[in-house]
Each structure stands twice: as C-alpha cells, then as structure tokens.
Amino acid sequence: MAEMEGLAQRQELSQQGRWRLRALALGACALCLGGLALPTVSVAAAEAAKIDFALPQTVEESEALKARADALHAEADRLNAIAQQQCYQKFLVNACLDDAKKAYNRLNLQARPLEQAVRDFERAQRQADADAKETKRAADALSREKEQREQAERYRADEARRAAEREQKIAAKAAQAEAGQRKTAAEEADRRERDADRAKRKAERDAKKAGNAADGKSGRQGVQ
After folding, report:
1. How far apart are CA 191 and CA 201, in angstroms?
2. pLDDT tens readout for residues 1-14
3. CB neighbours of 207 closer than 8 A, spacing ≥ 6?
4. Which domain, by its residues, includes 132?
5. pLDDT digits (tens, 9 = 90+) for 16-49
C-alpha cells in the first residue's frame, strides 16, 4: 500500500514537472517570438512616423535632405531583412512575406517627398544656372556689340583723321609750291627790274658819254 502511494506521488510529481517544463518552453518561445516581433513593431512605428522637413534653399541643405532619404531607404532595407527572417519562422510564410513587402514599400514611400523636394531644388538650381548663363551670354553679346561699334567708330575717326592729315599735307605742299612760285616770280621780277635799271643807267651813261664826246669834238673844231 505504501509502495502504491509512493508510486502515485512520483507520477504526480512527474506530471507536475512535465507541466512546468512545458510552461517554461512556452515562455521561452513567447520570449523568442516577442524578440523577433520587435523589428516588425519598429517597421510599423516607422511607417506611422511623419517625416517633417523644410524645403532646401541651398546646395548643402539639399545634400542633407538627400542623405536623410537615403537613410530611410537603408533603414527600410534593414527592417525588411529582419522581417523576412521572422516570416520564415512562421507557419504562413508567403502571407508574412507579402505583409513585409507592403510594409517595406510603405516605408520607402516616406522618402519620396524628401527626394521630390531635392529634385525640385536641383531642377530650380539648373534653371537658375541656365538663366544666369543666358543672362551672361546676352550681356557678353551686348558687350561685344558695343565694343564692335566703338571699334568701328574709332576706325572711322582714325580714317577721317588720317584723311584730314593727308589733305592738310597736300594743301601745305600746294601752298608751299605756290609760295615758291610767287617767290620765284618775285625774284624774277626783281631781277628784271634790276636789269632794266642797270640797262637804263648804262644807257644814260652811254648817252652822256656820247654827248660829252660830241661836245668835245665840236669844241676842237671851233678852235681850229
């Protein structure tokens, strides 16, 4: 009888031990599943998080915003890899993978407004650069046109100055030649006048000599 009671007690203890082991195993499994579920909770929290940002006004702000978008994609990749590992621990693997993919896509969508803001800034920056280049090109064209006009005006002024100088030289040469001719004519007239005066005086002297000679001859004849 005592042996039967001892056997019953041992069976009861064995049954209680099995229940305790099962409870411990279930607890450990729950802890494992809970640990594996943490990333899924992080994905959901990340999906629900609202991304606040200011539109970039400088290249540095645009680069920083792009880095935030890249970080969101990297975080989505990391959480998706963990979620896929979880799915292979579950019974409905394909359904879990579909949910993980949807969560991955929704998380990546959060980066789109940031990337769109970066693209808008870069587009505006390219347009501003193009406008600046066009403005500079137009200004350079006006500057070249002005320089060409000024060069043409300087050329015409130089040509007019050289033409005036040539005309002045020609006029000066003509005046010099005319002055030379007048001087030559005056000198010739003066020479002729002097020659005429000398001829006149010579004629007067000759006439006087002839008169004196005639008077002397007449006197000698009267004496005879």
Report:
1. 15
2. 434 344 344 444 33
3. none
4. 55-174
5. 333 333 333 333 333 333 333 334 434 444 444 5
In a domain, 125, yes or no: yes
Number of H helices, E strands in the chain: 4, 0
Domain count, the chain: 1
106 inside domain: yes
Whether 44 is in a domain gets the answer no
Could you read off the pLDDT of 164-188 as tens digits, one per residue? 999 999 999 998 898 889 888 888 8
The dihedrals phi and psi of 17, each to the nearest 5 degrees, come to -65, -40
SS3 35: helix
| 193 is a domain residue | no
The predicted model scores a pTM of: 0.49
- Which tokens go with 151? 């060069």
The overall average pLDDT reported for the chain is 78
Helix 59-87 / helix 2-48 crossing angle, nearest 10 deg:
150
Q: Percentage of the chain surpassing pLDDT 70?
A: 73
DSSP state of 110: T
Length of the chain: 224
Give CB contacts under 8 A, 24+ apart, made by 188-195.
none
